[in-house]
Structures are given as C-alpha cells and as structure tokens.
Amino acid sequence: MTNRLSTPPARPTGRAIWRGVRHRCPACGRGRLFTGYLKPVATCASCGEDLSAIRAEDGPSWLTILLLGPVVVPAALFLAFSGAPQIVLIPMSAFVLMAGVLLLLPRVKGGFIGAIWAMGIQSSGR
Fold first, then answer.
1. How far is 33 from 55, CA to CA, in rounded Å?
2. Which superkingdom, per the lineage (predicted)?
C-alpha cells in the first residue's frame, strides 16, 4: 500500500488579497474579516476557516505610511512654498494624513491577512 501525499487546496493569492482589502474572509469572501476597526475574527462565521493564527504585526502600518508619504509630503511642500500660512498648512496636512491612515489602514491590514492566509503562513505562539 502506497501513501499518497495530499496536496493542499489552491489558495489564489490575488483573490485572497482582494477579499481582505474588502474586509471579507480570504477563504470564502462572504464572512466578515474584522470584529472592530482592526481586530480580526478568530474564525469565519460563514465558512469556519480558522484565522486566529494569522498575525499581520507591523506590516500594514509600514505599508500605509509608505503609500501615503509620497502623496502627503509633496502636497505639503507645494503648499509651503506657495506662500500658504503655516497656521493653515500644519492642521490641513495633519488632517489629510490622519484621514488617509484611518481610511487605508484597515484595507491594507485586510490585504496582509489575505496574503498571509494564501501563503499558508501561521504564527507560532503568543
């Protein structure tokens, strides 16, 4: 009797990332990915996929700032050299940066969770 190694089911990375960006379970695309603003669910309510071992850690915050920096910094520099008063420039730049982070961070974290799930990476402990 020969033992056959079973191959795990295919996990398309692009689809899993897109589902994560939309705050959906990377496995089925129907269940919610977060219980709150950034807290991921332990298991999908729709398909039962165990997502508790997936940890995105610092990657989403790093990528969010990396994506927002090239947009906010040139805009702030343009406004600074255009003669806009600093009393307007600093609060406006801070508001745009905070709004961008608040809107982008959960989507980036969902994408990270989707990518980690598709690659089959599990956290060891904690």
1. 13
2. Bacteria
CA 74 – CA 87 distance, rounded (Å): 18
**Which amino acid is located at 20 in the chain?**
G
How many Å apart are CA 53 and CA 9, to the nearest integer?
A: 18
Q: What is the CA radius of gyration of the chain?
A: 20
Residue 31 · residue 45 · CB < 8 Å: yes
> Is pLDDT at 2 greater than 70 in this prediction?
no
C-alpha triplet 12, 17, 19: angle, nearest 5°: 95
Model confidence at 36, pLDDT cuts 50, 70, 90, reads very high
